[in-house]
Design goal:
alpha+beta; GIY-YIG endonuclease; three-stranded antiparallel β-sheet; 3 strands
Length: 105
């Protein structure tokens, strides 16, 4: 059975890069060494591995990676820090049309 990893790298410009791999050590080394010159991380080295989560199902890993890529920086930081309370707060819908904000009539 294969393992798949969703990971978040912190770049030298303090931006985050999220990716997926089945060999975390190898992929991190590729990022660090600048394996692909046209990649996001190439000009943002050195990098640090801030977060990773292991999955047994590649489809779950892909889903989680895409989900994280849509998150705000603050939400990614809460995940990295393991701050589940802040992650929950940042995940709440804040639209004026949300049921929590409708007056009781």
């Amino acid at each position: 059975m294969y393992s798949y990893y969703v990971y978040i790298l912190k770049c030298s410009d303090n931006s985050y890069y999220t990716g997926i791999t089945n060999d975390l050590d190898k992929r991190f080394k590729e990022h660090q060494l600048g394996y692909k010159k046209d990649s996001y991380t190439y000009k943002r080295r050195p990098l640090s591995l801030e977060f990773h989560q292991e999955f047994n199902d590649v489809l779950q890993a892909i889903y989680f990676e895409k989900k994280i890529k849509g998150w705000t920086r603050a939400k990614k930081q809460a995940l990295i820090e393991g701050n589940s309370d802040m992650l929950l707060i940042l995940s709440e819908c804040r639209n004026a049309t949300h049921y929590k904000y409708k007056p009781n009539i």
